[in-house]
Amino acid sequence: MTSNRSKNGTGMIEFRGVNKWFGTLNVLRDITLSVEPREVVVVCGPSGSGKSTLIRCINGLETIRDGDLVVDGQRLGDPATNMTRLRTEIGFVFQSFNLYPHKTALENVTLAPIHVRKIPRAEAEKAGRELLAKVGLADKVNAYPAQLSGGQQQRVAIARCLGMRPKIMLFDEPTSALDPEMISEVLDVMVAVAEEGMTMMVVTHEMGFARKVAQRVVFMDAGAIVESGTPDEFFSHPKTDRSRAFLSKILRH
Amino acid sequence: MIWQQLQSIAGSYPLALRGLGMTVMLSLISLVLGTLIGFGLGILRTGGNRLISGAIGAWVDLIRGTPFLVQIFLIFFILPELGIELDAFTAGIIALTNLAACFICEIVVAGIRSVPTGQVEAALASGLSRWQRMRQVVLPQAMRIVLPPLVGQYVLLIKDSSVVSAIGLTDLTRVGWLVVQRVPNGLLVFFLVGLGYFIVCYPLIMLARRLEQRMGAAHGEVQL
């Protein structure tokens, strides 16, 4: 069960005036955004709009130039914040899965619990098998990533994150690298995780997923948050020209 | 004539065995030490610290860019002037270990850099420490790239060990020089010396070839 505690009345994830540059390119512009515990936020926008960079900042895969980013009550970049410790509370699902190719599905799931959480091997393996069963891969426990389909690999990757019992899960275009027939098996797992009350930020263009579980959709363009609202508001009555143009492109097919 | 020479050479077999033993001993010790130090240097070289990384890079370039014979002379004849007395065997081991470590460092660095960034990011994201990322995620995958040239480097090391005969160590090559003074048939004597090296090296060459084939086929599980 994830904790609902959040210090100083702030959200689980709290961006305040965050800016980031790649060289002279302002990839994040004055981002202010608060994600409450158990909230599911979908981030969408055209490619290059800074969506991935936004969520990669949350677990420190990218660093911010200025502004405040507070995650689970800890300010990033603060010397008092132990980034390695904080990362154990944040699951991150990559577009390209990034499973460890030299380890089996079960070993992928148990690696961090055994070495970081120091859970006894037998216990970690039992939990790992249960998680793999939960994502529908009870029969693939001993398979290597190369022997699994993309959809199966991504489900192992989700199980790998869940194995750490994180407070937050971040998804960076989790279905973009998948063949169309495998997308729903991954989305189904993500819906199940959301329904258990996980705090989630999901970069995706899967609007069906957004309608089903998201409390909020955030639309980004050119590094800035242009619009933010409930899925219904956003899809039925987009407020800006840019979001209308974006929606007309992704909903056309 | 040839027959007499062969008999005379055969009479020197205790000396030849001693030489072979010395060559194997020198190679084996510096191979083990050089591998350990080479891996350590390679890991440090790819670590975040620019100063350490730069210093290792400069040292490796220096060693790769100077003849091994010169390095041995420096260690054996120049260090004593600075007050560091070394016997020939220790000097040989130090020179060979240093040479092996530098080449192996480069091989390890190439292997570590071949591991996709996504792997490190996945390990970072699940909270693994720097050493855990290296030990559990990066090195096992790097070994696929590292192992074949590593074994190839061992072959080079065994052959380079012949240079230490220059500081008076009775290795296989020096035994050749000693025998040829008694048996004036350089072609025959050094053919046999070469054969001695080949017998030691050939199994390693075969091993490197097999590793290369296996690494290409397997889906990446190499146990350290």
Descriptive overview:
Chain B: Residues 20-208 form the ABC transmembrane type-1 domain. The complex is a heterodimer of chains A (253) and B (224). In chain A, a hairpin with a 2-residue loop joins strand 1 and strand 2. In chain A, the strands form two sheets. In chain A, strands 6-7-8-3-9-10 form a six-stranded mixed sheet, with helices on both faces. A four-stranded antiparallel sheet of chain A has the order 2-1-4-5, covered by helices on one side. Chain A is 36% helix and 24% strand. Chain A has helices at residues 51-58, 83-87, 105-115, 121-134, 150-162, 180-195, 207-213, 231-236, 241-251, and strands at 13-22, 25-35, 40-44, 66-71, 74-75, 90-93, 168-172, 199-203, 216-221, 224-229. With 253 residues, chain A is α/β, with parallel strands linked by helices. By secondary structure, chain B is an all-alpha fold. Chain B has one domain: MetI-like (MetI-like fold). In chain B, 80% of the residues lie in helices and 0% in strands. Chain B has nine helices and no strands. Chain B has helices at residues 2-10, 13-46, 50-64, 68-78, 88-114, 117-125, 130-160, 172-182, 186-217. The chains are: A alpha/beta (253), B mainly alpha (224).
Q: Descriptors for this entry?
A:
heterodimer; A: 253 residues; 6-stranded mixed β-sheet; 4-stranded antiparallel β-sheet; 9 helices; 10 strands; 24% strand; disordered N terminus; B: 224 residues; mainly alpha; MetI-like fold; 80% helix
Topology:
The complex is a heterodimer of chains A (253) and B (224).
Chain A: E1 13-22, E2 25-35, E3 40-44, H1 51-58, E4 66-71, E5 74-75, H2 83-87, E6 90-93, H3 105-115, H4 121-134, H5 150-162, E7 168-172, H6 180-195, E8 199-203, H7 207-213, E9 216-221, E10 224-229, H8 231-236, H9 241-251
Parallel strand pairs in A: 3-8, 3-9, 6-7, 7-8
Antiparallel strand pairs in A: 1-2, 1-4, 4-5, 9-10
Helix pairs in contact in A: 3-4, 3-5, 4-5, 5-6
Chain B: H1 2-10, H2 13-46, H3 50-64, H4 68-78, H5 88-114, H6 117-125, H7 130-160, H8 172-182, H9 186-217
Helix pairs in contact in B: 2-3, 2-5, 2-7, 2-8, 3-5, 4-5, 5-7, 6-7, 7-9, 8-9
